[in-house]
Amino acid sequence: MRRWEELRPEFDKRNVRILTVSTDTVSELVAGRKKHGLGGLMLSDRDLSVTDLFGLRNLGIHSGIPGGAKALPVPTSILADANGEVVWMDQSENYQQRSEPGFVLNALQEHLG
């Protein structure tokens, strides 16, 4: 989420809203928001019901999942246009890796001007 805050000015120029879905508990999300000064909408998906709706459950994860979660989602960044159509998506098999800000900025420029 901190990576997205780096791009906040670019998101704001394009009227892009940030939504994150995490297996963290609500209290963990609130604490992280306060600690790191995060904006955007943050949703807790402990049971992976939203993750499963999008087919993003990571079936190949290794042991030692943080926070006692049963499984983790595939880290996925999705850019949708004003009509809700997905125009770009980036995924990683490693739950510790996220899209690089420069990579996301290029996608913003390419798809949203």
Could you explain the architecture of this structure?
The protein has 113 residues and is α+β, with helices and mostly antiparallel strands. It has five helices and six strands. The protein has one domain (2-112): Glutaredoxin (3-Layer(aba) Sandwich). It has helices at 2-6, 8-13, 26-36, 49-53, 101-112, and strands spanning 19-22, 41-44, 57-58, 72-73, 76-80, 86-91. The strands form three sheets. Strands 1-2 form a two-stranded parallel ribbon. Strands 3-4 form a two-stranded antiparallel sheet. Strands 5-6 form a two-stranded antiparallel ribbon. The radius of gyration is 14 Å and the shape is globular. The model has no long low-confidence stretch (mean pLDDT 84).
Name the CATH superfamily classification: Glutaredoxin
Order of strands side by side in the largest beta sheet?
A: 1-2
Secondary-structure arrangement, i.e. CATH architecture = 3-Layer(aba) Sandwich
Determine the CATH topology. Answer: Glutaredoxin
Low-confidence stretches: none
Percent strand equals 15-25%
Q: State the separation between the terminal residues, measured CA to CA.
A: 23 Å
Overall helicity: 25-40%
Global shape: globular
Number of domains: 1
Protein structure class: alpha+beta
How many DSSP helices? 5
Mean pLDDT: 84
Main β sheet profile = 2 strands, parallel
Order of helices and strands: HHEHEHEEEEH
In the CATH scheme, the class would be: Alpha Beta
Cα-atom radius of gyration: 14 Å
**Total number of beta strands:** 6
